[in-house]
Design brief:
Elements lengths: L7 E6 L13 E5 L5 H11 L2 H11 L6 E6 L2 E8 L6 E7 L8 H16 L3 E7 L1 H11 L2 E2 L17
Parallel strand pairs: 5-6
Antiparallel strand pairs: 1-6, 1-7, 2-3, 3-4, 4-5
Helix pairs in contact: 1-2
């Protein structure tokens, strides 16, 4: 059975991103290390959709990891990836529910998009964005919906098994 693409894809220019500044706090954002793969995947599976674990694993397994994590005192608070399900796509991103609303997700988003810009991308697609999350992307990085993509796109090939 085919999956209906329920979200809206968004686009963001990587040329005018907000400045990312690492704070002096104990919260750190870093490129994920493959040696932490099991810990990162356990975090993702604990709080988010099962299929995100596969996307994060793919991002971790690339020549240079395309996954970033937020940590505090060696505890993972969030993650963000790019090029995990298609070239030039940002996501998935997730933050521990206890740390949402504190700017952790925005900082992680900007850091990851900066890495995409450093990698050579001029724009990033943020795929399958639910209506309730679009404002986060608009406010954080001025992402805009891509018109006419609700029925087609990268996610139109997904299927449910079983």
């Amino acid at each position: 059975m085919a999956v209906k693409h329920n979200g809206t894809d968004m686009i963001v220019s990587l040329f005018n991103l907000p400045t990312f500044k690492e704070s002096a706090s104990t919260i750190k954002i870093k490129r994920a290390f493959i040696g932490d793969k099991d810990t990162i995947l356990q975090f993702v599976s604990r709080y988010f959709q099962e299929n995100w674990t596969y996307e994060v694993e793919h991002a971790l397994m690339q020549d240079v990891s395309k996954c970033f994590i937020v940590t505090q005192d060696k505890k993972i608070l969030g993650f963000a990836c790019y090029d995990s399900y298609a070239k030039g796509f940002f996501g998935p991103i997730g933050v521990d529910p206890a740390y949402r609303g504190r700017g952790v997700g925005s900082a992680l988003l900007v850091r990851t998009l900066n890495a995409m810009q450093e990698y050579g991308y001029g724009y990033a697609i943020i795929g399958w964005v639910d209506d309730d999350v679009q404002e986060f992307y608009k406010k954080s990085v001025d992402a805009q919906p891509i018109r006419g993509n609700s029925e087609e796109g990268v996610f139109s090939n997904l299927i449910f098994l079983g």
